[in-house]
User: What shape does this take?
Amino acid sequence: MDLKQFPRRRYTAGATPVEYLGNFSRAVGGPDIYVKRDDLLGLTGGGNKTRKLEFLVGDALARGADTLITCGAVQSNHCRLTLAAAVKEGLKCRLVLTEAVPGSYRPDASGNVFLYHLLGVERITVVPWGADLLTALAEAAAEAAAEGRRPYIIPMGGSNPIGALGYVACGQEIAAQAAETGLAFDNIVVAGGSAGTQGGLLLGLRSAGCAVPVTGMSVLNPRAAQEKLVFDLVTKTADYAGVAPRVAREEIVVRDGYLGPGYTLPTEAMVAAVKLLAATEGILLDPSYTGKAMAGLIDLARKGVFPAGSKILFLHTGGWPSLFAHPELFR
Ligand SMILES: Cc1ncc(COP(=O)(O)O)c(C=O)c1O
Assistant: This one.
């Protein structure tokens, strides 16, 4: 798939590294674990949304937008990075935040909320969990338009076919790195929320001729719903790019056993995974996404689903600034 046909901004110089986690692999026992450092992507604090925003903001600018409008949970990495992209491009940014836990938005909180204010968010609207976010975004856009702005709506998590192109690019990048280094991975593990990362990744890998299986660790939906979300996005993205999907339904693999009591709610295994990676490799995970995905990887390694001698690539999608909103979990 040729991505040159799409408007794109660049927020990261070059490919993110693939690193072998020797200490961590020994501590887990079993497979050789590698990490793709998308936590080192550009914009404030890095993470997977930076790749999606290259294409989303490229599209927004091509359409003459001057105000980005998006939504997310209270401690949203996607909102932080959309705002960071707006700052870099000289655009304004307005956020709609939804409270998974009622009353959890506090303007004086740390983590991403602190960064929204430091980066100069123009307006924050808070809506209850379960509110219709499409309507809330449309209302925020109508309000901006009434003020003479040219708003551009970015959906939850940046997961539409335009945003997913960012992970098509990542899939192609991983395929090229695997070919260059001769590393043949047996599985790639990634956190799954709004599905653009897993969907785009699969499409990018397959379009580059790389057949490695991908395991999505859902942090939001039950397995069947999440697999459907990923598959639908793969289909729509392939359609948008004018290519054959080349990803069969059976290739969409999601596990939901590490989600715990719900989205953004902590689990013991997440806390243990965050602590172990920090203590063995000095790499930070986050409580809502990568910590739970890594807890899944550790469990599958210890159960032999990822056997000794296999090579597993963890796609680190970022999110560490939200650690600072919940220090009590890790003390
Ligand atoms: C750190 C992190 N990892 C993973 C994800 C999930 O990515 P996606 O929404 O594309 O499934 C998110 C989404 O917000 C995230 O912030």
The radius of gyration is 19 Å. DSSP finds ten helices and ten strands in the chain. The chain has two domains: 3-47+160-330, 61-157.
